[in-house]
Amino acid sequence: MIAVPAVRPRAGVHYWWDSYREMVRYDLASQRQWLPFLFVIQLLLSAGMAVLYGFYLPVIPPQLAAFIVTGTPALALIPIGFISVPQMIADRKLAGTYEFTLAFPVPRMADVLSSVTVYTAIALPGLAVALALSAWRYDVTLHPSPMFVPAVLLTAVTASAAGAAIGHAIGNPVITNVISNLLVFFVLLYAPIVFPAHQFPSWLAEVNRYLPFMNMATVLRSALLPGLAGDVTHAYLVLSVWAVVSLTICYQVISRRG
Amino acid sequence: MLLWHASSLRVWAVTTIVVEIMAGCGMVIGVGLLVPDISQTAALYCTTGTAVITLIMVGLIIGPQFIAQQRTDGTYEYLLGLPVPRTAAAFAWYTVCLVLALPGAVAALALGCWHYDLSLRVSPAVVPAVLLASFTATMLGYAVANAIERPMVTVILTQVVIFLAFGYAPINFPPDQMPHWLAEANRGLPFLPMATAVRHGLTPGFDNRLAESYAVLIAWAVGSALVAAIAIGRRR
Description:
The structure holds two protein chains of two kinds.
Chain A: H1 12-30, H2 35-55, H3 62-95, H4 97-102, H5 108-137, H6 148-169, H7 173-190, H8 202-210, H9 212-224, H10 232-255
Helix pairs in contact in A: 1-5, 2-3, 2-5, 3-5, 3-6, 3-7, 3-9, 5-6, 6-9, 6-10, 9-10
Chain B: H1 2-8, H2 10-34, H3 40-73, H4 75-80, H5 86-115, H6 126-147, H7 151-167, H8 180-188, H9 191-202, H10 210-233
């Protein structure tokens, strides 16, 4: 008698969950040399960014200090999603592992969501350290609410999904790197994350209402210091739309045959 | 060597000039948005500081990343094999970095002056200041790119350096807005002296400690050139 291995059905919740767990293992193992390095850099940059904004201001009124501190979590999550994720995908394209990974017999979204999970987990310690450091540096007392958890999750998922969409949709890895670097440059200076939107020309503030960056800061801020953030419902809505659109783009691109 | 660089960098050079102009102009306006009701002094710091950052960015960041890429694709060893003096190669590299950076720095300066309604009093001192600041930055980047063998490490290191120069060196703002110990530490590091020297050439009487700045810059330039020379001269 030849032992026939048990055949797993390639559908259903169990299959999806198993595939997802396997992909997380694969993502961790294939980047094991790089991830600890990224973890440390992310920790230093997040904390460093929160502190450096203060140097640019001659005086820091309490209202602005509160804005800087509550903007810190968004500063920690955005670069991981918009730089690290697309660069990881660009590296896979350069190394030739991209097609190899796509050939795995796993649901496509398990692949995408596993990257989102790994990179979100990498960002969280940096977020915590940066938040604690900036609250101490600017002497701001936070009142975190349980809404911080969904706010962090939605922000992280939206940032990583948008980053993954950039990485997957753009064929040339060099262009991916240029775009992700330009994006972060734009975000640090032209999106009101650590300062109120009314410091901006009104047209730029209006544009930012429909981009994800300010809205990420808004949902996180509202969960840290109630009353400081603007239109929270609008922010959750815009972020959800960006998350869904980005995940759809990822799905479309990686299920394209060619 | 100059010709070799110029022709091998055609596409890269045009992209770099465009990115430099965009980055310089983007920064000079963007930094102003951070500060509510920006004063004339702050605007002057921001405009001249952005010009300095744009000036040193090619030699310090984009250049080393380009050399890292040459290591990946093997051009690096080929270049070392060319029968030219190492110093000629280094000076050719410096010239390229300076020429690519200047349009961005001038654009940032012009846009900043127009946007914040500033008037500069440019003196001839700006010429040696720009040449020396750019030379020191380029030699620093050249040392990093030649001394570090793993391209990935070079890329990350240069990104950390520009982050520190932008955020933790008083280039875009007066040193007294930082903690005292950090401002003091910056006197011995290259970025504050670069800003001091160039700013003095653009608006005389603005910064003190000019002689000290030149001395520190020269020391960094010589030190970096030595590191680069040792790294290049090492036999493989």
